[in-house]
Amino acid sequence: MNPTLKNLLASCAGFIVMMVMNMGLVILLGSIFPPPEGVDPNDVKSINNNLYRYSFFQLIMPFIAHAGGTLTGTFTAAKMANSKKVLVVMILATVHFFGGVMMVSMLNNSPMWFIVLDLGAAYFPMAWLGYKLSK
Question: In whole angstroms, what is the distance from residue 33 CA to residue 72 CA?
Fold first, then answer.
């Protein structure tokens, strides 16, 4: 198979795994640590207005979902890629990172520790770990 095509398919597979794992963890962890009573998790305004009521565990859930999604998606892509595995992995991490930046910008009441943890540790470090574990 053409190496470029194989890398493109690996990227697509990694992206799908990343998003499925991210959403799966959000759903799973959301059922274990549901949002505070009266908060609609599908309404950004409701979350913003009640973010001060969230416990540490409710706040750490998105980080775990983002980190787990990045790790599994980049691992999958690195395993499948033909060449330039680091490039494939870092492109996926960048795409997911920008999703995290959008999330943080929508939740304008997020604690600073969460923003630093999520944007600093859930994407590029996990992508690098996924790449290293794929070897």
Answer: 22
Angle at 95 between CA 14 and CA 110, to 5 degrees: 120
Q: Flag whether the pTM goes above 0.90.
A: yes
Distance in angstroms (rounded) separating the CA atoms of residues 78 and 52: 39
**What element of type H or E holds 131?**
helix 124-133
List Cβ neighbours of 132 (8 Å cut-off, separation of 6 or more). Answer: none
3-state percent helix, strand, coil for the chain, nearest multiple of 5: 80, 0, 20
Number of Cβ within a 10 Å radius of residue 17: 20
Residues 6+ positions from 27 with CB-CB distance below 8 Å: none
Instruction: Please report the sign of the dihedral spanned by the C-alpha atoms of residue 97, residue 101, residue 102, residue 108.
Output: positive
Query: Over the stretch 1-29, which tens digit does the pLDDT of each residue have?
Result: 898 999 999 999 999 999 999 999 999 99
